[in-house]
Amino acid sequence: MSHTKQTRRITHASRGTLLHILEALPGAVLVIDDDATIVYANAHAQAMTGATPGEVVGTSLWRCAPQLVSPQLYQAVQQASQTSNPINVAYVSPATKNRLHVSLSPTDEGLVLFFHGDPEPLPHQEAWNRDERMYRDLLESCADAVTLVTPDGVILDINQPTLAGVHRRREEVIGTPLTELPVWSHDPMVQQQLRAAMAQASQGETVRFEVSIHPRTGLSLNMVMTIIPHCDARQQVEYLICASQDISECKHAENELRTLVDAIPQLVWVKRPDGFSEYHNQRWCDYTGMTPEQAQGDGWMQALHPDDRQGVLDAWQVSLHTGTPYERELRLRNGRTGAYRWFLARAEPCNNAQGQIVKWFGSNTDIDEQKRLERALRQSQERANVLMDSSIIGIDISKGEQIVDANDTFLRMTGYTREDLRAGRINWMQMTPPDYRERTLQAQQEFDTQQLVMPYEKELLGKDGSRLPVIVGRVALPSNPAQGIAFVLDNSARKELERRKDDLINMASHELMTPLTAVKLQAQIVRRHLVKQGLHEAAEDLLGLEEPVAQLEHLVGELLDISKIQTDGLEYRQEMVDLDALLREITDTMQYLNPSYTLVVRGAAQTTLIGDRKRLRQIFTNLISNAIKYSPDAKTVEIDLSTSSETVTISVRDYGLGIPRELHDKIFERFYRAAGPRQLAVPGLGMGLSIVAEIVKRHGGTIMVDSTVGEGSTFTVTFPRTRDV
What we know:
The protein is an alpha+beta fold. It folds into 5 domains: 1-141, Beta-Lactamase (2-Layer Sandwich), CATH 3.30.450; 250-371, PAS domain (Beta-Lactamase), CATH 3.30.450; 390-485, 2-Layer Sandwich (Beta-Lactamase), CATH 3.30.450.20; 495-566; 575-724, 2-Layer Sandwich (Heat Shock Protein 90), CATH 3.30.565. The protein contains 25 helices and 28 strands. The protein has a 5-stranded antiparallel beta sheet with strand order 2-1-5-4-3. Strand 19 (467-477) and strand 20 form a beta hairpin. Helix 21 crosses helix 25 (688-698), helix 22 (579-593) packs parallel to helix 23 and helix 23 runs antiparallel to helix 25. The protein starts with 15 loop residues before the first helix and ends with a strand. Residues 14-79, 131-201, 253-323 form the PAS domain. It catalyses: ATP + protein L-histidine = ADP + protein N-phospho-L-histidine.
């Protein structure tokens, strides 16, 4: 048959006899050309379609005869046209519900369709009826809207849900283009989208797309349209099955979910079953600085750290192929700062009723702080390992008195073995000599209340009974506060050095005192002889020797005191001391020796102390002397006395150089001096305050300092009050 687009007509002049025969036939006769355009319709056909000859001839069979149109008729027309063989087909008109039987005969003029009114039963008629009923039942029982259309979009059949959606009767829509239904014609863009989808499906491809339609004023629906091509035995597309599903509720729920998702702190995303990223929540976009369009597909990977990309892709492929949950740590770039932060990415597949994955829902949780803590923990663990492996510091872990773990250095220091450790034979208190037991119990109480013990000196008993001087500190383990980790430093070398130093001081001070005393006495004798001989000028010159000798005598005396303190050999007398009289005597002497300074005494002690008058004089002489020496630019020293019912307090205040706060405790240590240039310019060996602190302690008192650099210092001595004068 020719494929010309020209419409052919049968005229009464050229086909009079044929027309007469056709008009006399009892059934309806239609003749159509290759494009299914009607070129002839007899009177019965006109009556059947309800149209005049002018309205029928020249128009498409599918457009002007909805009472006749059906998928079965469409298939029969296609088959007869392609094979040029006659075909009989019986079917029920979707529009009128009338049963029709049509014979299709190819001719030179075109295809003749002869519709029989109510045909006699044909062979297999019952089977045809059953097939048609099954077809109608399936079509009408489908909950989705289903429409059968020609490849160019003309409606061949339509089910009731579709008609209900468009508020039209079946006979009004069959034979019309699908795109002209109100649900599609409201928007030219939507019409174009449907036309493009049908054209794609006409090539044999199933097409699925989402669209928003407006069936009537005030109603908007979200639909998923699936267009499936129906092919004949030769795989030629016969017609298209258009099924639409209302997903408005799902879309509404999805929009509500996305609103909720946009509010949560995680970065949320959705991928299709093939891994294509189709959605990222607002927080994800805000963090990365990317738009939803930029993030779609693989675009989101632009925010991924380059070093993480291959690993992420590999992990994704495993999840996509196995359907197992996805989990991966990765770094994402902050779009505002350009810095990368660590996130934990997780995704779970969402399956439909058939078990097929329809979506991947994923989230990114910020774990950057956790990663920093893990990194710090690793570094801390590495440092701890270095410490535990140290050959200098002994480390032990104890629970109560029992040592449960220790490094090799601790075991070497104490002589114990790993076997002793495993057998529980290393006990902290059993390793403590009796003379250090009280201090060790005090340290345990500090640990129980404060979860730490500041470093202190003690001795340990080794496995062989030997004593080892050590410095010990302890702190509770954060993971188990009942256990403590302690460092143990071998202090034997320092103790030996101190012993030798003390021996040297003791020896030097005794060896120096004898010749010094001799020099002093000899100088006095010579000076008296010179005076008797009238050599007064020479005697005066010799008098100048007495002051440096006195200074040397004072220094040697302090060395002797230090030596005696170390050996507990410093003697104290027990006598009644009038504290007010003693302080007046000291200040008068100091004022006489330092006339350029003003010593101001305020208050009264009105207290008698039981103690060593000489040692008490040593305390306040030293404090006032220091106040004068360290106040080169201030000429006033204040001494304040006050009492309470239990104590007596004496404060010595100067307005001199001052002492840095971090050195307030150190200045009472032996031989310690502040290292500033102005302090070092003052002569001294750093012994005075350590001697003062020891004497105050032996009298049951305390000494404290309050000082600010550049503003001066106040030393406060407090004694327990014994008896009012």
